[in-house]
Automatic annotation (TrEMBL):
Keyword presence, Transport: no
FAD-binding PCMH-type domain mapped to chain residues: 125-312
PROSITE patterns reported for this sequence: FAD_PCMH
Species annotation: Gymnopus androsaceus JB14
Oxidoreductase recorded as keyword: yes
Family classification: Belongs to the oxygen-dependent FAD-linked oxidoreductase family.
Protein name (database record): FAD-binding domain-containing protein
Alphabetic keyword roster: Oxidoreductase, Signal
């Protein structure tokens, strides 16, 4: 084959979208970037991966290591609060890298001070956007959308960088970093209104308005200081108005009080056509529905969200039980959980179970009721010489400080997840319960150890029919079961290559437990089969129609987001192919 035919072959193998993108993109010159920076008042920045100061080279050129900065990075490699302040950091580190080209700049996660991670190993840009804008208001977003549509430079939207699919990271993109707002003055991004009325509506609600960059840590402190309770995630640094709320947003209070998507009253956002819009039940209701479960990063750039809050501090019963299981008693404990969880859900408990214990909260019961409800679990744990605490805490904030902060998922590692929503019908029959227990018992111990069962489905919450677009499977589920796999750096030299990482840990057994159910889009597997069905169920066609209405040219796009055109979308080029 001559070079010419080769070119044609490769051209024709591009998807239509890619051809259009190739034709459109006129790579911007330095002058274009300078002009953009000027339009933005100087708030355009260049970016490098988080650990780049530790390396003596960048992109094939030698550069001096910045020892002092590197030490701070090593010391804070697993510190989510620190990472959230760094544009070039992603909580799950493979999203700092471009996996398909093995271009990376990460430290050794088994020992961040291990100099072998940077000695003779290159530091490359990976999938970190080379440019980002520190977004201060909707004008910045409009400028960026216009720039992208003129130049073909793809856009990415980053908040905290927690996304497990790497959807807040994108190779070669111009990034909109909405989080920087917080560092200016977080309290200007938070407000409480005792009688908030959504634009166009008439009913009022006690509500908090939260700017795009605000993490839960600040939202919880603000709610507490205003004597209200807001329903949010189990992490200090996850954003309250970003991917969490648009993708579903679960909380240990969700069994009684609903998911994030159930409690949001209004979004303010810029849609890809450049319009700054309000979306709520009265104004742009189709967009509002799509944002309530359709996921972040695709329908527009959210500047703030407003969610209903509960008046007052909330008295909570807390059960914290743990023991040291053997392979046998661990499975016995799982069996006990399957036998008791339906009743616990009916009583309003929410929280986390693992093979060696549980932490649950309940806003409905008294302490005596909580103790009696937990009787079966207490007896079992005590028979195993484990520890049992059942106590009353006066507020969500006290629960957060005492239990949540110390129990957050680890960041700074490569991680892969898998998720399944487990319907109530499974718990109703002995056969159903046995199916679950057997599936777990059949897994290797290493998988059992990373099992997290969360009681976070909105089991008692009375949702309005079709008010949200996440999979309806949430509505009759009791559990969201997940496995969180961390890749271990046993031998750095041998395993640093991303190409050799075990990519697919698809839990076929997990799917077969509840084949007709779904998965939580924010905590699912990157390669979830039939993801449209799993994440959105029957809502997908309508979500796609709304995406096409507000973003007809596909200006925004991300991996397995609504409207994703597939692995050949150039924006997805860093993801490893599934083989
Ligand atoms: C340690 C940890 C703990 C977690 N705990 C929970 C939990 O308790 N409950 C739960 O439900 N989930 C939890 N998650 C999952 C979490 O919901 C997702 O990671 C979510 O995507 C994070 O959203 P973010 O905006 O903070 O992160 P990012 O990674 O910055 O963004 C996530 C996605 O939303 C988009 N996005 C972000 N901001 C905007 C915006 N302003 N406008 C438009 N699009 C935007 C991004 O483009 C990306 O697609 C946890 C994750 C981690 C890593
Ligand atoms: C992506 O491109 C490859 C190679 O050109 C092609 O074989 C494949 O079918 C495409 N996949 C999709 C989902 O379009
Ligand atoms: C944008 O302008 C500011 C102020 O002039 C400057 O500090 C910054 O480095 C510029 N950004 C880029 C990417 O050149
Ligand atoms: C994590 O980083 C934050 C922000 O830099 C810092 O305030 C905090 O002390 C760090 N935590 C630890 C345990 O080092
Ligand atoms: C957005 O912020 C920029 C810079 O501070 C300012 O020039 C502009 O007027 C602001 N736009 C709006 C709509 O507030
Ligand atoms: C959009 O881009 C065009 C072409 O560069 C420019 O003339 C126009 O002023 C831009 N509009 C906005 C709102 O930035
Ligand atoms: C609260 O909301 C109401 C109704 O939307 C509005 O009139 C009022 O100004 C708001 N109060 C504050 C303090 O923002
Ligand atoms: C659900 O609501 C959306 C948004 O209002 C609407 O487009 C869709 O048709 C509704 N679906 C059903 C099944 O009623
Ligand atoms: C907090 O709110 C609750 C419920 O509205 C109220 O009963 C209580 O008095 C308030 N506490 C304070 C300190 O204002
Ligand atoms: C204890 O578990 C049994 C089933 O094993 C159940 O019938 C009973 O209701 C449970 N007791 C409590 C207090 O939950
Ligand atoms: C619990 O502790 C008692 C007293 O030390 C001991 O006899 C018993 O074997 C222990 N049980 C388990 C399950 O470890
Ligand atoms: C749901 O509605 C039922 C019937 O109106 C009511 O008894 C129950 O308290 C509601 N549940 C919640 C959690 O609000």
């Amino acid at each position: 084959m001559t070079p010419t035919t080769n070119l044609f072959v490769s051209l024709f193998s591009l998807s239509l979208l890619q051809v259009i993108q190739t034709l459109q993109s006129t790579t911007p010159t330095t002058l274009d970037w300078t002009a953009l920076n000027k339009t933005l008042g100087g708030r355009l920045y260049t970016a490098r991966p988080f650990a780049s100061p530790c390396f003596p080279d960048f992109d094939g050129l030698s550069v001096p290591r910045i020892e002092a900065n590197c030490e701070v990075i090593e010391d804070n490699y697993f510190n989510a609060t620190f990472r959230s302040t760094q544009f070039g950091s992603f909580m799950t580190t493979q999203w700092e890298s471009c996996m398909s080209t093995d271009s990376q700049c990460t430290l050794d996660s088994s020992d961040p001070s291990d100099f072998l991670a940077w000695t003779d190993l290159p530091c490359d840009q990976g999938s970190v956007a080379p440019y980002y804008i520190d977004v201060q208001n909707y004008t910045d977003v409009q400028i960026a959308l216009n720039f992208s549509s003129n130049t073909g430079v793809p856009l990415s939207i980053k908040n905290s960088g927690h996304d497990y699919f790497g959807r807040s990271s994108m190779v070669g993109s111009l990034a909109l970093w909405v989080m920087i707002l917080r560092h200016i003055n977080v309290y200007s991004q938070l407000s409480f209104n005792a009688s908030f009325v959504p634009d166009g509506g008439s009913e009022s609600y006690p509500a908090m308005t939260i700017g795009a960059g605000v993490p839960w840590a600040d939202a919880y402190a603000f709610a507490d200081s205003n004597n209200v309770t807001i329903v949010g995630g189990y992490a200090e640094t996850v954003g309250a108005s970003g991917g969490w709320v648009m993708g579903g947003g679960h909380s240990v209070l969700s069994p009684v009080l609903g998911l994030g998507i159930d409690r949001v009253l209004e979004f303010k956002l810029v849609t890809p056509d450049g319009e700054y819009r309000t979306a709520n039940a009265y104004t742009n209701p189709d967009l509002f529905w799509a944002l309530r479960g359709g996921g972040g990063g695709t329908f527009g750039v959210v500047l703030e969200s407003t969610s209903v809050v509960e008046p007052g501090a909330m008295t909570l019963q807390v059960a914290s039980l743990s023991f040291d299981p053997t392979s046998e008693t661990g499975i016995q404990f799982i069996q006990l959980l399957t036998e008791n969880s339906l009743q616990w859900a009916q009583q309003g408990w929410g929280g986390h179970f693992t093979i060696n214990g549980l932490i649950l909260v309940n806003p409905l019961l008294t302490l005596e009721e909580a103790q009696s409800s937990m009787q079966n679990a207490t007896e079992f744990i005590q028979s195993q010489n484990g520890t049992v605490t059942i106590e009353t805490l006066p507020s969500w904030y006290e629960f957060y400080v005492k239990y949540v902060i110390s129990y957050q998922s680890t960041v700074g590692l490569e991680a892969t997840l898998a998720s399944r929503l487990i319907p109530s019908s499974l718990f109703e029959t002995e056969d159903g319960r046995n199916t679950f227990v057997q599936a777990i018992a059949d897994m290797p111990a290493a998988a059992q150890d990373i099992l997290t069962i969360t009681a976070v489905a909105p089991f008692l919450f009375n949702a309005t029919a079709n008010s949200t677009s996440a999979t309806p499977a949430w509505r009759d589920s009791v559990w969201h079961v997940s496995f969180l796999f961390y890749r271990e750096f046993l031998s750095l030299r041998k395993t640093k290559s991303l190409l050799s990482r075990p990519q697919i840990i698809i839990p076929k057994p997990l799917i077969s437990i509840a084949p007709d159910s779904g998965a939580y889009m924010n905590e699912a597997n990157v390669y979830e089969p039939n993801y449209e069905q799993a994440f959105w169920g029957e809502n997908y066609p309508q979500l796609l129609a709304i995406k096409e209405k507000y973003d007809p040219s596909g200006l925004l796009g991300c991996w397995r987001c609504v409207g994703w055109t597939g692995v050949n979308d150039t924006r997805s080029q860093c993801y490893l192919p599934l083989n």
